[in-house]
Amino acid sequence: LSPGAKMGCFTFVKVMMILFNLAIFLGGGTLLGVGIWVKVDGESFVNIFGALSSSILQVVNVGYLLIVIGAILLVIGFLGCYGAQKESKCLLMMFFSLVLIIFIAEVAAAVVALVFTGLAETLLTGLVTPLLKEKYGVDQTFTEIWNVTMTEVHCCGLNNYTDFNNSYYYETHNSYPRQCCDMREPCNGTLAAEMAVEGCFKQILEEIRTNAAVAGGVAAGIAALEIAAMAVSMYLYCRLDEK
């Protein structure tokens, strides 16, 4: 290519890098703002977005999650946008390194999820089962979340009906949740064992495997964007030596 064509290509890539990372920066700022809003005034957030948001807030600390994701996107967007605009090799290398770290972490998480599914089940059992024993039937929102989940997914507990053994709900009602007996009542141990309703973890895992193609496509798309971002940043970094 002629020097003019090379310069034109460099300018085009630089502008696209700036616009792309500006969008990431603005998106990160939005998520950060929403996260702070949820932490400061979660009640109004629930009032606007309804009961589903209340359920989500009980399961995941959405505020902190949005703040962390928003902050990461802000940093990535700033490094990419400002680094390209100022043609700073230092900022471009920092952008490349940060995206590379995130990419490696995602690949590692995917490998762990595929290889150590049993370990994930063990960890979830250790975390969720005590909550089921203590909060199911006590905390109205927590109970509603599990009732909806067990009814819609046709499952019982995390592993099976034994998750409710010695629980507050069983001790109070002398029965298991009716979802553990395929909506039959009274749901005693004999009927629950006979119906053998599977745990929600296995059911949800089966749903994920059924829709693995979609999940894989989304993951592949994100990975492709990250690889493209790293390639563009490295292209700009190397071209700066020639200017």
Automatic annotation (TrEMBL):
Gene3D superfamilies per the record?
Tetraspanin
What are the protein's UniProt keywords?
A: Disulfide bond, Glycoprotein, Lysosome, Membrane, Transmembrane, Transmembrane helix
Q: Which Pfam families match?
A: Tetraspanin
InterPro entries reported in the protein's UniProt record: Tetraspanin/Peripherin, Tetraspanin_animals, Tetraspanin_CS, Tetraspanin_EC2_sf
Major localisation: membrane
What kind of membrane protein is this, topologically?
A: Multi-pass membrane protein
State if Transmembrane is listed as a keyword. yes
Quote the function comment for this protein: Structural component of specialized membrane microdomains known as tetraspanin-enriched microdomains (TERMs), which act as platforms for receptor clustering and signaling. Participates thereby in diverse biological functions such as cell signal transduction, adhesion, migration and protein trafficking. Regulates neuronal differentiation in response to NGF by facilitating NGF-mediated activation of NTRK1/TRKA receptor tyrosine kinase and subsequent downstream signaling pathways. Plays a role in the inhibition of TNFalpha-induced apoptosis.
* Classification via PANTHER family: TETRASPANIN, TETRASPANIN-1
Q: What is this protein called?
A: Tetraspanin
Q: Which gene encodes it?
A: Tspan1
